[in-house]
Write a structure and sequence with these properties.
- There is one protein chain.
- The chain has 14 helices and 26 strands.
- It is of the alpha/beta class.
- A hairpin with a 2-residue loop joins strand 22 and strand 23.
Length: 474
């Protein structure tokens, strides 16, 4: 029989597994309620209205125990996207927190409220490792969202590789406030602690006060996205309670987008802590990470995880061996998805043999540390014969005192091919455009200076904190 995805559930204990505000479930509680719900689920796919609650966690665990693919739905989803996902995945049931209204688009799908008590059924036998566990939909930036079919094998492989990289144990208590319809918040942030036999405290809504309270009261790890760490970086220098709480953490992890070097530096200066970055995608789960026991290099996403192979490939398909040379990241390993639901064409196009084409561009240094320079489609700017990564320019701009937030894109230029455009949220009075261009040229190189500067009140971001650069271009 395959190894259980959650050994601690099978063993049972009175240790805390999940805490969301006043809702607390021990491993015994979770096993009872999830196993009971698992026995009621149909054999087809089930949708989960993924509010940031203990109910969502119970529903996903129940589906995993039953061997039924779960389709997490973003509670902020729009009508068109919801209709597409429902038509594509054809769920037989939607699991939802009691009392939460669902949109009209779900009227045709039977609803089952998620219980927090009851049960008593035995945990079902562990399904085959290749059984689809989750179908997570991509953000749909280049067309309708695609359903990424993630097998149990990929979830187990990623979480066990992170155990190795981060020294993750059953003694760790994780705090986070991430959404639960995505890989970061759901698989790493909920299923990760449960696989280790540790516990997770979800804040429901992010606040620096909430993070400080949990880290000062037993939490050992924090997961966040750059927007969260940016708020921490802005407050930690003057908030001694926050600084002391962060100092006590065993590990601070940032993901889903690049954490600006300036924010790394501010957090380290106030706390002595160095935030760990990792790199993953919906299709691959986790690929690389800075190791807890390794050298911390701000601005990098570390080295390949155990069992994961990573290579960089040039425009002509050649494998790049030289250090500090830009290429597309390709990945293979047990962490990969099995395909896009109902899209064999897209699945075939996503692979180069056994290697998954990530679409992310990066360099690798002499120690094997990967530094992502951006998405091939939106963050690699070809200007004046140079390949320029948007990320390093963004980091340089953020070192200017007049810049609160920055994003960099390229736009067509008759002379250069593409010109560099900086989108700036100023900190106070907007700096002069020439001043920002000269600042970048001095720190990096003249050909990397922005040719155009546009000021905004805020950068458009998705629920995971990523800047939506296509919206900037529009």
């Amino acid at each position: 029989m395959p190894e259980p995805l959650f050994p601690a559930l099978a063993r049972g204990s009175t240790r805390e597994a999940l805490r969301f505000g006043d809702h607390l479930l021990t491993y015994d509680d979770l096993a009872a309620v999830a196993a009971g719900l698992a026995r009621e689920l149909p054999q087809g796919r089930v949708a989960v209205w993924a509010t940031p609650t203990v109910h969502t966690s119970v529903a996903v665990v129940a589906a995993l125990l039953a061997g039924v693919p779960a389709v997490p739905l973003n509670p902020k989803i729009g009508e068109r996207e919801l209709a597409h996902i429902l038509a594509d995945s054809e769920p037989q049931l939607v699991l939802a927190e009691p009392g939460v209204p669902l949109p009209e688009g779900l009227d045709g799908v039977p609803r089952r409220d998620i219980p927090l008590t009851g049960g008593g059924a035995e945990i079902p036998e562990e399904p085959d490792p290749e059984t689809p566990a989750l179908i997570v939909y991509t953000s749909g930036t280049t067309g309708p969202p695609k359903g990424v079919v993630l097998p149990r094998r990929a979830i187990a492989a990623t979480l066990d590789a992170l155990e190795d990289a981060w020294g993750w144990t059953d003694g760790d208590v994780l705090v986070h406030a991430l959404p639960l319809f995505h890989v970061h918040g759901l698989i790493l942030g909920i299923l990760g602690p449960l696989r280790r036999g540790g516990s997770v405290r979800h804040l429901g809504r992010f606040s620096t006060e909430g993070v400080a309270h949990e880290l000062a009261n037993g939490a050992t790890m924090m997961f966040g996205v750059p927007t969260m760490y940016h708020r921490i970086a802005g407050e930690v220098g003057t908030d001694t309670t926050l600084a002391d709480a962060l100092k006590s953490a065993r590990l601070l992890v940032s993901g889903s987008a690049a954490l600006p070097v300036h924010d790394h530096q501010r957090i380290t200066a106030a706390t002595g802590q160095q935030v760990v970055e990792r790199y993953g995608m919906t299709e691959t789960l986790m690929n690389t990470s800075v190791r807890a026991d390794g050298e911390r290099k701000p601005g990098t996403v570390g080295v390949p995880l155990r069992g994961v192979e990573v290579r960089l490939v040039g425009d002509a398909g050649e494998v790049i061996e030289d250090v500090d040379t830009v290429g597309e990241i390709q990945v293979r390993g047990p962490n990969l998805f099995t395909g896009y639901l109902n899209r064999p064409d897209a699945t075939a196009a996503a692979f180069d043999g056994e290697w998954f084409r990530t679409g992310d561009m990066a360099t690798r240094d002499a120690d094997g540390y990967v530094r992502i320079v951006g998405r091939k489609a939106t963050d690699l700017i070809k200007s004046g014969g140079y390949k320029i990564g948007a990320g390093e320019i963004e980091n340089a701009l953020l070192e200017h005192p007049g810049v609160a937030e920055a994003a960099v894109t390229g736009e067509p230029d008759d002379d250069l091919g593409e010109r560099i455009v900086a989108w700036i949220v100023p900190s106070g009075t907007p700096p002069a455009e020439d001043e920002l261009a000269d600042h970048v040229a001095k720190l990096l190189a003249p050909h990397k200076r922005p040719r155009v500067v546009r000021f905004l009140d805020a950068l458009p971001r998705n629920d995971m904190g990523k800047v939506m650069k296509r919206a900037l271009g529009a």
